[in-house]
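TA notes, week 10

Several of you asked for a full example with nothing omitted. So below is the full record: structure tokens for the whole chain, then the designed sequence directly under it. When grading your own attempts, check the secondary structure regions first.
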């Protein structure tokens, strides 16, 4: 198998998880404490208002809790696990539950990753700006009314 097609080995390192429950785990150290608090506040309001559970993990593979986050966060059909990891080029990766998948078009996640997660964006603006812009865009999207136009545009980023 060529290296370009090799998948990274699975990791399960619960020792990298915080001792207290939090929707933001910054293993990579991309965020300041105030940025973490701002994201946690946005996530809490979003969950209360919409029922969707956004969780944010920043990492530099292989320094990641990996599979351990699933149980730690209680990932379910209403969860969006947003992993910020620049190890493989683009920094934004999303795993969405079935209820989220039914509400948000798949193309939104690709466009979001393309807009704020591409290497040029995060190298110029920084990892934190990429993460914060993506969180704002997800918040904006999930608050839009259901229908064909829901999440048609990626908006709500830091530079808009």
């Amino acid at each position: 198998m060529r290296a370009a097609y090799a998948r990274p080995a699975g990791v399960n390192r619960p020792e990298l998880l915080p001792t207290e429950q939090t929707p933001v785990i910054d293993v990579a150290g991309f965020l300041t404490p105030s940025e973490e608090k701002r994201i946690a506040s946005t996530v809490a309001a979003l969950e209360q208002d919409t029922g969707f559970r956004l969780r944010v993990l920043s990492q530099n593979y292989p320094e990641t809790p990996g599979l351990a986050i699933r149980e730690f966060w209680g990932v379910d059909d209403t969860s969006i696990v947003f992993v910020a990891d620049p190890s493989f080029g683009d920094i934004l990766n999303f795993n969405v539950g079935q209820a989220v998948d039914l509400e948000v078009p798949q193309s939104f996640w690709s466009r979001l990753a393309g807009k704020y997660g591409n290497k040029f964006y995060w190298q110029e603006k920084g990892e934190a700006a990429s993460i914060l812009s993506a969180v704002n865009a997800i918040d904006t999207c999930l608050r839009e009314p259901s229908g064909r136009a829901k999440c048609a545009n990626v908006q709500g980023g830091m530079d808009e």
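Strands lie at 24-26, 53-58, 79-84, 92-96. Use that as a sanity check on your answer.
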